[in-house]
Model the fold of this input.
Amino acid sequence: MLDADFFRRWMTITAASVDREAERLTALDSPIGDADHGSNLQRGFRAVRDTLEKEPPTTPGAVLVQAGRLLISTVGGASGPLYGTLLRRTGKALGEAVEVDERQLAEALRAGVDAVRQLGGAAPGDKTMIDALVPAVDALGDSFAAASDAAEEGAVATTPLLARKGRASYLGERSIGHQDPGATSSALLIAGLVAAAADTEAGDE
Amino acid sequence: MSDEKLVGIVLVSHSAAVAASVAELAQGLAGAGGTVPVAPAGGTEDGGLGTSAELIAAAAASVDRGAGVAVLTDLGSAVLTVKTLLAEGDELPERTRLVDAPFVEGAVAAVVTASTGADLAAVETAAAEAYTYRKV
Done:
């Protein structure tokens, strides 16, 4: 079972991954975006990490709702409302339960991804975070590792795609040949589940 | 007329200068529309280019006179942030609407219409109609 501490670790680990990869995310965002994806997400997830450390919520749902709210208020770019909606809706779908199982997380994350699709209007193949998140959620029923692999493959597979959403879409065919920064950061988020679960097992021994 | 509640207008741009200038332009072109509550919410809190949920919420609260608030945006994160705040339900005043309109022309139409004491639906319609104004 996954408790509030697991979800807090997931957010802390994601904050560390975003810190580590911020320069790469911004570099990916330079040719097709406005070169701020890494620094924007870094600011957002640092706020998430700091607030969750100071006042840790007591349920999985509350951890994600709080994280989502912080991303919306601190990121300053489109990734704020998009990731904020993803986490907030996932958290709301988890409800008040003190512990949830992997199946419940998979269902809730699907609700979160659906909310992101509705907000941004992106479909699979549009070269967005959806291209990493949809395969991840599809594979989440198997294992966190399978979901992480699917997200990473989905992110890599955005390279030959033509961007149809966001600033990159103005570039038309010039967006082809670049990996999407949002799909790349989404793969980091999903990879955080694997690391958070590994920490749990290590702590249980 | 003097105690009539006017619809408030919020102008959200990635740039603080753009939001403030469009607010000034719309109020200037509205003439007597100087009484319409208009608030810019431009850029990030630290003065950079981007969108701030907190500036948007503060701007909306500052123009809310009880007749509703019409929010016009430029693009990308400005649109997504307003939609996300509306989805939450408690961060913007009641009867706040994101108006689907061109930013500059829509702002002028919205402020002029609001200055007549029109309701939120009429302000929204006027701003949206600015899309039909052809220049060539």
In short: Chain B touches chain A through 17 residues (CB under 8 Å). The first strand of chain B starts at residue 8 and ends at 13. Chain B has one domain: 8-132.
